[in-house]
Amino acid sequence: MNKVTKTILAVFQGMLVGLGAVLPGVSGGVLCVIFGIYKPVMELLSEPFKNLRTHVPKLFPYIVGGAIGFLGVAKVLAFLLDAYPDPSVCLFIGLIVGMLPSLFKEAGEEGRDKWSFVSFAIALALILALLISLEKFSVSIVPNTAWWVFCGFCAALSIIAPGMSFSTLLMPLNLYTPFITGISSFDFSCIIPAVIGAGLTVILFAKFVDHMLKTHYSICFHAILGVVCAATIMTVPFKTVMNNWLVNLICFVLGVIGALLLDKFNSQFPKE
């Protein structure tokens, strides 16, 4: 493969990572793992000054592609969520469900033991309890600067922690749609706090998450799976899903098929 072809492929893979960072059900971090760039990305994020000169040149095509993928899909998502909320959510849930087999396989890359399943169960229970409490007590979240910072935190975490799709946390809190709308309309009152939140996440958590995944990979990844499953359950629009149920079901099935096809496509590329 010549240098030009390799660069084009890197930009394309970066676009997929950018899509994964914003598209519900797909994790940008998982795609980084699949494309074999997770290790250098984490090395750059955890020690940016040390690795700036060596890592940025080889990651630059991925960074460019990631920006194109992230910004390019935001407007489409904002339109779909506004015009067709339930079918869109069902499509996204299908994407999440379709990615679960590959995430489960990825979680077991270094084996599983009882603590792996304990961490899964604890994470599942904690996130379910949190989200059910928010719903039960009708906690109304009004997007503001603090919540935009939180959205940035979740977005950065979806890259740092493979399998953590930030949409799975934002959708049950009704923050996903306004956040995507803010990004797609280049609303800097949303973007700037989100960038600050993402930057703080990298500074505070990148080195810690990198260390934990290196030393307790199975436990950490199964906990991430628990978070993904819990948030996915709470994303299902139970109150309205039976309205136009056939359309919603078709969208769900299409989401599952799309995720499986994406996983099959990703498997053609060698991992680091």
What does the secondary structure layout of this molecule look like, with pairings?
Elements: H1 3-22, H2 28-34, H3 38-46, H4 48-83, H5 85-107, H6 114-136, H7 145-160, H8 167-170, H9 176-184, H10 188-215, H11 217-235, H12 245-266
Low-confidence parts lasting 5 or more residues at pLDDT below 50? Answer: none
Describe the largest sheet: none
Envelope shape? globular
Please, what is the average pLDDT? 82
Radius of gyration: 18 Å
Helix fraction bin: over 70%
Structural class comes to mainly alpha
Count of helical segments?
12
H/E series: HHHHHHHHHHHH
How much of the polypeptide forms β-strand, as a percent range?
under 5%
Q: For the record, give the distance between the C-alpha atoms at the N and C termini, rounded to a whole number.
A: 17 Å
Number of strands: 0
Describe the structure.
The chain is mainly α and 272 residues long. 79% of the residues lie in helices and 0% in strands. The protein contains twelve helices and no strands. The protein has helices at 3-22, 28-34, 38-46, 48-83, 85-107, 114-136, 145-160, 167-170, 176-184, 188-215, 217-235, 245-266. Helix 6 (114-136) packs parallel to helix 11 (217-235) and helix 10 packs antiparallel against helix 11. The radius of gyration is 18 Å and the shape is globular. The model has no long low-confidence stretch (mean pLDDT 82).
